[in-house]
Structures are given as structure tokens and as C-alpha cells.
Amino acid sequence: MMQGGGNMPLILPVLAELVARGHVVRVVVGPGIRPSRVPVGAELLRRLAEAGVEALTFPAPRPHPLDNAPPVRGLVGGWTPGPFRRAPTDARAWLWAPAWAEAMAAELRRGPVDSIRRQTLAWKRGGKSGAGRDSRSSAARRSSAGLVCCG
Questions:
Q1: d(Cα 107, Cα 105) in Å, to the nearest integer?
Q2: Is the pTM for the entire model greater than 0.70?
Q3: Residue 58 to residues 14, 31, 63: CA-CA distances in angstroms?
């Protein structure tokens, strides 16, 4: 999840419901990935805590992914059609991919998850495979779910 994404009203009820159903929910939270560079705010962390979610923050990498980025250009020969004017700037958000991958890898080393999700609100329940078999030992059957929103 990133600061400034504008999707908290959509995601918080899902997170709270997962927690209410007994899932352990950990969310990796990073700074805004757009040129505004919005840092992780206390209000975002407070709302996640109120939902019963463990929020794990990571700082902006040094150098910042946008510091050495090539200049923004249009889609076709330097020109961008009106409805797509934000596309070249928005596409630069992918420069954050290595930082998010590193943060997620560190979190996965810290403890297993049943599922990791980005933007889509779906999850795998209770460690069961699509066939309905539980592939984990009975000691490890405590359900958890990961929800990641990074763009």
C-alpha cells in the first residue's frame, strides 16, 4: 500500500473484515510513488491499526527512484493524446518496482503468508489449495492473508 493512493475507503473495510474473520493481516506501506513524494503519514498508520492490521513501513530508497529517471516524454513522437496525458508520468511509478520487491522479499523472510495481493481484493483462505486440500500441517493452519496495493 502506498501513501496518497486514494483507495483507503475501499480497502479498509476489506482489511477489517479479514481481521474480524480471524485472519492475520500484514500490509507493507511505503511512501507515495508519484512525483509528489508523499511520505507515509500518521493518519494512514492510525487507520490501519484501528482496522487491526499490522502495518510495516519502509522508507523511500536512496537515491529516490525518480531522481535519476529519464525525462517524461509523450507516447508517440513526444506527443500524448489528451485522454492519456497522465500516462507517461504514471508509467514512471514502475521505477519503484525494485524497492517494493525488496520490501516484500524482506517481509516474506520474516514470516509466511497465504497470499499476497496487489490492488485486486482477492485472497486465498486458510492455506487451502484450489482443490480444497489443506497442504499445511495442523499447527500451521492459522489463516493469514496479505493485501498489497502499490499503484
A1: 5
A2: no
A3: 23, 8, 14
